[in-house]
Design brief:
Elements lengths: L23 H26 L4 H25 L6 H12 L30
Length: 126
Amino acid sequence: MPSRDDILADRLNAEPAIFKGCSSSELGIIVGVAALIWLPVSLLLAGLLGAVTMGFGLAGVGVVGTVIVMASLFQRLKRGRPDGHYQQRFSIWLSDCGLRRSPFVRRSGAWDIGRSGNATLPLRDR
């Protein structure tokens, strides 16, 4: 029987889902990218209309909307797949585009050990 001091979060294999199937690190990345996109765009648009401070409100609404839409998209991408599936697919896509080397073995076909002759085993002294 586990003790009362046993922390259950120590036994997790993956980050728990926080919002729409996304973990806290995934949500942090979504919020960061959305803020980098929405803040300059909304400040520029609000500046052109003459109400610069309104740009911060517009950026906030844009970030919240982006988080909801992207979390729903990630939820569909991750449904029924193992943990880390989309990160591996993204890594393979980067490799296919030539932007990064794939950390996975992606060769199909016959494998060879690279020897041309039979190897002899050394005799043991008895």
